[in-house]
Amino acid sequence: MEFLGFTLDIAALTDNVFSIVLKVVFALLIFIVGRWLAKKVVIIANRVMVRSHLETTAANFLSRLLYGILLIIVALAALSKIGVQTTSVVAILGGAAVAIGLSLKDQLSNFAAGIMIVTFRPFVRGDYVQISSYTGTVTEITLINTHLTTTNNHDIIIPNSDITTSAITNYSALPNRRVDITVGIGYDADIKTAKNVMITLANDNPLAFSDPEPIVRVTNLGDNSVDLTLNVWTTNDDWWSMQCDLLEQFKYAFDDNKIDIPFPQRNVHVKGLDLMINQMDESQKLPLKKD
Question: Please, what's the largest Cα pairwise distance for the chain?
Answer without folding.
Answer: 152
